[in-house]
Amino acid sequence: MTGLAVLVPGGQGQVGSELSAILRSRETLVHAPGSAELDLTDPEAVRDAVDAFAEVAGDAELRPVVINTAAYTAVDAAESDPERAREINVAGPASLAEACRDSDLPLLHVSTDYVFPGDADRPYEPTDETGPRTVYGRTKLEGERVVLESGARAWIVRTAWVYGAHGGNFVKTMARLAAQRDALSVVDDQIGSPTWAADLARGLLELAELVATGTGPQQQVLHCTNSGSTSWFDFARAIFTALDLDPNRVNPCSSAEYPTRTPRPAYSVLSGNAWQHAGLTPLQSWQDALEAALVADGEAFRHRG
Ligand SMILES: NC(=O)c1ccc[n+]([C@@H]2O[C@H](COP(=O)([O-])OP(=O)(O)OC[C@H]3O[C@@H](n4cnc5c(N)ncnc54)[C@H](OP(=O)(O)O)[C@@H]3O)[C@@H](O)[C@H]2O)c1
Predict the structure, then answer these.
(1) Looking at ligand 1, which residue's alpha carbon is closest to its atom 24?
(2) CB 30 within 8 A of CB 71
(3) 243-258 tens-digit pLDDT
(4) Residue 161, ligand 1, Cβ within 6 A
(5) Segment 191-239, tens digit of pLDDT
(6) Domain residue ranges in the chain
(7) Does 258 participate in catalysis according to the annotation?
(8) What EC number(s) would the UniProt record show (predicted)?
(9) Would you tell me the crossing angle of helices 286-301 and 197-212 to the nearest 10 degrees?
(10) pLDDT by residue (tens digit) across 106-133?
């Protein structure tokens, strides 16, 4: 069996960086352009990049897959810039999916728990009714639809609460605030599944192996997060403990006491049932993932002052 060749638009982001690091360590052919090298909102550039990648993979007799991790991810900023969010989260994926369809390349497209209203009392299944409450969520949902309707061999992988060594995220924010303040308050009424970008990347690659051999799951929308769920408050306490800091410096507060410009889902746990039914390996618990992340990339997460 020949190896994979993977094109990763958004290759400099949290998830894209992890994907490209893992692929390089496996000596897989990977092209992981950042937005400066491949702007998803430029349809011609997208088509040229996909065509060139298909040719390189073909010449090397490798099995090509595209994994789209590029997105407009600034949830609050999207409210005042919906056109840009739509360009990147809808028009970009549409161009990419059309180019993949025409070059017959399978596409994995990463999406989010924000496509749901966030008021459930049990984990969301991929088939559950969506109902985004934000511009970010609405554009991501529209992006899912254009990808699925493009005619490409495409799969949507929704994830949530991502943190990794590259880019800003909650773990790094907690480490920074711990260095700046004696105590801090974190909301305890929003529940989700913290997900280590490296675990998500490994999950995406397991799926990529299947789709590249034509044995991708029938179910085209899947959920992939670390297993288990928690509140931001308990996650913050776990981060403090993992960083050898006193978790009692973190106090609980309600979302009403910590208003954000955009509503955050109260409950957005994603069920991994469909992932498992597809024969894919469930990701480890969020607690084990946090410990592993700090062992693997401790320096990247610790605040340097
Ligand atoms: N972070 C989370 O908590 C979370 C939760 C659920 C789902 N997700 C989803 O997971 C995926 C990856 O997210 P992430 O956390 O890795 O986000 P990220 O760190 O913000 O990375 C997204 C990347 O997209 C790139 N990008 C933005 N505009 C682009 C354009 N016009 N053309 C090409 N690339 C562009 C950005 O590159 P530049 O910086 O160079 O512009 C950035 O590196 C996204 O689909 C996101 O919706 C994330």
Answers:
(1) 70
(2) no
(3) 999 999 999 999 999 8
(4) yes
(5) 999 999 999 999 999 999 999 999 999 999 999 999 999 999 999 999 9
(6) 4-169+194-227+268-284
(7) no
(8) 1.1.1.133
(9) 110
(10) 999 999 999 999 999 999 999 999 999 9
User: What confidence tens digit (pLDDT) does each residue in 70-113 have?
Assistant: 999 999 999 999 999 999 999 999 999 999 999 999 999 999 99
pLDDT at residue 1 tops 60: no
- Compute, in angstroms, the gap from residue 153 CA to the centroid of ligand 1: 22
- Span from the CA of 32 to the centroid of ligand 1 (angstroms): 13
End-to-end CA distance of the chain: 49
Give the pairing of strands 221-223 and 162-163.
unpaired
Within 10 angstroms of residue 174's Cβ, the number of other Cβ atoms is 26
Cα–Cα distances in Å, from 200 out to 12, 88, 203, 247? 15, 21, 5, 27
The residue with tokens 């094109």 is 7
Written as six digits, the tokens of 82 are 């919906």
- What kind of fold does domain 4-169+194-227+268-284 have according to CATH? Rossmann fold (3.40.50)
Sign, Cα dihedral of 158, 162, 166, 169:
positive
